[in-house]
Amino acid sequence: MSYIPQRAGKDLKTPQxxxxxxxxxxxADAISSEWAQIKGLPKRxxxxxxxxxxxxxxxxxxNRDGAIKAFLGHAEGDLLCYRADEPPALAxxxxxxxxxxxxxxxxxxxxxxxxxxxxxxxxxxxxALTALRQQxxxxxxxKLLALAQAAGLFGSAVLALALLTGRLNYQQAMELSLLDxxxxxxxxxxxxxxxxxxxxxxxxxxxxxxxxxxxGA
Length: 217
Hints:
- This protein has helices spanning about 25-35, 50-60, 65-75, 90-110, 125-135, 140-155, 155-165, 170-175, 180-190, 190-215; strands spanning about 5, 10, 80-85, 115.
- By secondary structure, the chain is mainly α.
- The protein has one domain (about 65-215): ATP12 ATPase (ATP12-like fold, Orthogonal Bundle).
- Helix 2 (about 50-60) crosses helix 6 (about 140-155), helix 3 runs parallel beside helix 6 and helix 7 packs antiparallel against helix 8 (about 170-175).
């Protein structure tokens, strides 16, 4: 079953001109609420849920393999798999906070991702990538969009899965994705550009998390 949001009593359509059919009544109501608050032409920042729905319908649905490849690209170079060799305190924190998520991905999805030291790109375990592909393939277009979007924001397929499934909330996942930068800030102070990056990322992730929550289980 699908539900179509409305504006002023009329069904909404996507930029491609097709009905904006979404999978839950909750999401349809939230999108309708976005439009109910708009006078005149909307600005993109006023309708984030609408933007996600449009993208899922107009772009993800006809190109699912592209979205899956984007997700897997972030698995191949997953942030959680690349560890510092120094300073020891940073390496220890990465192991303490990142490794449980990799263990969870292995236990839950059979995705045994290899861990490397240093920043040079390394070849990832093909069997792990296959396992992650299988998880992405069973998602509907809306959840697949959310997964690929989250992976891009985090630089991590594992953090994206953790957000999508509720293993982590968006604040927890964001902190883990910024672990290296936050560690450096503890040592030297927080630069203004990091604060701006974190604020922007938090806004995007809060909107994405709302979208995911409205998709339901």
